[in-house]
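Q: I'm writing up a methods section and want to include an example of the input and output format. Could you take the sequence below and give the corresponding predicted structure tokens, formatted cleanly so I can copy it straight into the document?
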Amino acid sequence: MIADKKPQPEAAAAEERLSKRVAAMLPCSRREAEQYIEGGWVRVDGQVVEEPQFRVARQKVELDKNASLMASVPVTLLLHKPAGYDDGAEMPAGVRPAPNAPLAARQLLEAGTRDPDDPSGMRLLKRHFAALISPVPLETGASGLLVFTQDWRVARKLTEDAGVIEHEIIVEIEGSASPDTLARLNHGLSSDARPLPRVKVSVNSAGEGKSKLRFAVKGTHPGLLAYLCQRVNLKILSMKRIRIGRVALAHLPMGRWRYLQAHERF
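A: Here is the clean output for your methods example:
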């Protein structure tokens, strides 16, 4: 660590912005000081502070020996959304949620809910929770994989290629689905004489009065699987999205999130 060696007078020291202290301490420009601070490289009395406007006086200010001014890489977060939370769409500015509105999935994105087994090795920064968009809808009543990203490349991939990216959803139903029912679902149903998006359906497991069906469908079609099941008289007990393209939910615990790893692609 590079420590602030500036001597302090006996009288009470006047407070100043942390960015000003760091700029004088190194020395470097004020903007470079802000980059060091926002990158999580600066500690005040041993604690990382990421706000350039933070006020300091006599505190000990240190810069990590591994500090870098390289631009922060935009991140993508993968959340295992519980049922009952919204799909991550951001509330428009100035608009308050209705009294009985579902809980916001974004509220689950915080330091304390990160998966302790996150394999990414990423340093968690407060800025990773800013300017996140959620480009892939998921029904409020469904659980499973939900994507939040700062990366315009990831957002563009998920929106522009939405029609060819396959989503895998496990639908738990009451009872079981007969071979004829599965054939109808796989053959393709229509609505008002218009064909509905094709799905691939297979039995995932069955037993004790309920079964799990594995649906694979290209693109996001909120409400589609519920409509298809209704058409063939299947009662849905739960829905869970377990994969988007080549990225799977895997063992991510419910209510936890992790970083998308560098090698993962949708």
